[in-house]
Amino acid sequence: MTILLSVHDLRAYYGQVQALHGLSFDLNEGSMTTLLGANGAGKTTTLRAICNMVRSTGAIQFEGKPLNGKSTENIVRLGIAHVPQGRGTFTTLTVEENLQLGAISRKDTKAISSDIERMYAHFPVLKQRHTQQAGTLSGGEQQMLAVARALMLRPRLMLLDEPSFGLAPLIVRDLFNILGKINREDKVSILVVEQNAQLALEIADKAYVIETGRIVMSGNAQEIANDESVRKSYLGY
Amino acid sequence: MELFINQVLAGIATGAIYACMALAIVMIFQAIDHLNFAQGEMAMFSTFIAWQLMQWGIPYWWAFLLTLIISFVAGIVIERVLFKPLAKAPVLTNVAGFIALFAIVNSVAGLIWDFTIKQFPTPFGSSPFLGSQLISTHQVGMIGVTLGLLIALFLFFRFTRIGLAMRAAAAMPESARLVGINTSWMVALGWGMASAIGAIAGILIAPVVFLEPNMMLGVLLYGFAAAVLGGLTSPLGAVLGGFLVGVFENLVGTYIPGVGNELKLPIALALIVIVLVVKPNGLMGHTVVKRV
């Protein structure tokens, strides 16, 4: 199995405050990997550091090439789609414009329109609302839109920050099923950060547990889910 | 009645210029959240460039086109050199930057072309339009060019990918970077376009106010009033505000005794204050609809 993303000795800083303390992990091609951890453990910071949105040191390699020193937009153009916390929806633009923006760095304009149709097939509710201002969508619909927008890049890797945040349990289940389908059928590797550990472990194949900016445990999702300390700390039983 | 119609039409014509200035102001405000106090001086300098080109014998429309290109490039250069380094600086630092730019552009224009008033040609002529005493051909030309510009801008922002990228970068810079948009260059592009729009305004108004380094001061104030009236976040509002302010200015000057030409400028300032007190969002400034 080839390694798509490798992170080695990552340290990140907000001003003088260090948020990550030498964090290392790998993500295999085609894998769905999850980062678990409590509030403030450094999950979001890890994703932001991968896209160079926070000051950091350490080695990050994507497809064997270093990302260090590249700007956020150039990292995205390599095929890393990042759905940030709060979804990053362009609220004042229409649903369709949001989808077009997802593909704004692509040159193949014909394929873009057919990809938009594909997204409408994945998420029929977006088609119904394609002329509507994205800010008027419900939370669940906005999350669908954010995932669809990220897929419009035709990414190799998708970074998802708390996709379940603020959504009703049924919608969360739906969303994760779709993510699993995207991972299997479209061969998009996914790195998902979640507080809903149970759900994340059900669907992921690999998991890392972060505590105060360090990886404290790693393994198959199954193993992690059965681990006693993880069960007590994150799964609550 | 004839006086009324005449004043309204003349107001629409100068309003077209205010609309251009307001649009330039709003474009930069959308991109960097600051008001460009030097917008008028940049427009004045562009107008001098057009005048100089014509002095060298270049025909009007070629000079017009060349000036737009030069202004566009100059706008980008000003952003790269002066304001990109200030992108994360506090508001007051930026304000100081704008005032410095204002003073520099004004003095340099005076240094090169001196402060004497110069005639500026119009390609439309100044005869009555279609034999009517109500409006001159130059005024019709001002309105026509402005409307053409507005339509072109609308099509650009609505239907081109780069226009969409610029809107996205202005609305949500971080999200824009996360879809691969180079937001920094979008800001520079906004500066270039605002600078070119200002050049159009300067060239169109110069035959009316005459060419000299302080020619845009009043126009810029009215442009600000128009932008505030329309709502600083809405390009459409800025345009509407421009036309409304133009008509309002003329009617007040004509019908309220004692106002005349001297008191027209305070009217612009009063309008800004009134709008900010009564309806700070302006006519079309949006409060974004959000459901979470």
What does this structure look like?
Chain A is α/β, with parallel strands linked by helices. Chain A is built from 10 helices and 10 strands. In chain A, the strands form 2 sheets. Chain A has a 6-stranded mixed beta sheet, with helices on both faces. In chain A, strands 2-1-4-5 form a 4-stranded antiparallel beta sheet, with helices on one face. The radius of gyration of chain A is 17 Å and the shape is globular. The mean pLDDT of chain A is 89. Chain B has one domain: ABC transporter involved in vitamin B12 uptake, BtuC. Chain B has 11 helices and no strands. Chain B starts with a helix and ends in a 14-residue tail after the last helix.
Could you give the topology of this structure?
The complex is a heterodimer of chains A (237) and B (292).
Chain A: E1 3-14, E2 17-28, E3 32-36, H1 43-50, E4 55-62, E5 65-66, H2 72-77, E6 80-83, H3 95-102, H4 109-122, H5 124-128, H6 139-151, E7 157-161, H7 169-185, E8 189-194, H8 197-203, E9 206-211, E10 214-220, H9 221-226, H10 228-235
Parallel strand pairs in A: 3-8, 3-9, 6-7, 7-8
Antiparallel strand pairs in A: 1-2, 1-4, 4-5, 9-10
Chain B: H1 2-32, H2 39-55, H3 60-83, H4 91-113, H5 137-159, H6 161-171, H7 173-178, H8 183-209, H9 216-230, H10 235-255, H11 264-278
Helix pairs in contact in B: 1-5, 1-8, 1-9, 1-10, 2-3, 2-4, 2-8, 2-9, 3-8, 5-6, 5-8, 6-8, 9-10, 9-11
Q: How many domains comprise the coordinates of chain A?
A: 1
The arrangement of helices and strands of chain B along the chain is HHHHHHHHHHH
Mean pLDDT of chain B equals 89
Assigned CATH architecture of chain A: 3-Layer(aba) Sandwich
CA-atom Rg of chain B in angstroms: 19 Å
Low-pLDDT runs of 5+ residues of chain A are: none
> Taking strands numbered 1, 2, ... along the chain, how are they ordered across the largest sheet of chain A?
6-7-8-3-9-10
Label the structural class of chain B.
mainly alpha
CATH topology of chain B: ABC transporter involved in vitamin B12 uptake, BtuC
Major β-sheet profile of chain B: none
Classified by CATH, the class of chain B is: Mainly Alpha
User: Strand portion of chain A, in percent?
Assistant: 25-35%
* Termini separation of chain A: 34 Å
Report the order of strands and helices of chain A: EEEHEEHEHHHHEHEHEEHH
